[in-house]
Amino acid sequence: MTKPRSKKTPLDPDPKYNDQMVTRFVNTLLRKGKKTIAFNIFYDTVDKISETTKENGYDIWKKAIENLMPSVEVKSRRIGGANFQIPTEVRPARKLALSMQWLISYAKERNGKSMADKLAAETIAASKGEGAAFKKKEDVHKMAEANKAFAHFRM
Fold first, then answer.
1. Cα–Cα 20 to 30 A to 77, which of 40, 66, 127, 140?
2. Domain coordinates of the chain in residue numbers?
3. For the domain bounded by 20-153, which CATH number is listed?
4. What pTM value is reported for the model?
5. How many Å apart are CA 122 and CA 64, to the nearest integer?
C-alpha cells in the first residue's frame, strides 16, 4: 500500500500586497536563498511598471501572469517503439508555475541594467500579449494543436 500524499503547506502572503501568488513568484525568482533581495527585485519591478505605464503595476503583473498561463501542453509518450507528443490539459498549479518560470527566464535573457528593469520590460510585454515569454506560450499551444491527432493515446 502506498503512503498518502503529504499536505502542501500554505505559503505566507507577502507583506506589501498580502498575496500568496507574489510569495510564490518571489520563491521562483529566488537565487541562493537570498529572499530579501528577491522581494526587493519584485517590488522594484512593480514600481518600474507603474512609472512606465502610469497604471497599477501590481495589476499589470497579475495580467501578465494570466496571459502566460498555458491551457494545453505536449508530453512525450513511448507507444509501440515510437515516441509521440501527446497533448494534455495543464493542471492549475502547473499553469501558474510555468507562467512564472517563463516570465523570469525570458526576463533574464533581455537587455537591461538590473533584473528589475528586465523583469518590468518582459512583464509589460506579456501583459500586452507580446514578448518572448508570450511567444513560448503560443509555441506550446501550436505544438499541442499540431499533435492533436495523437490525443486518443492519453491515459
1. 66
2. 20-153
3. 1.10.455.10
4. 0.89
5. 9
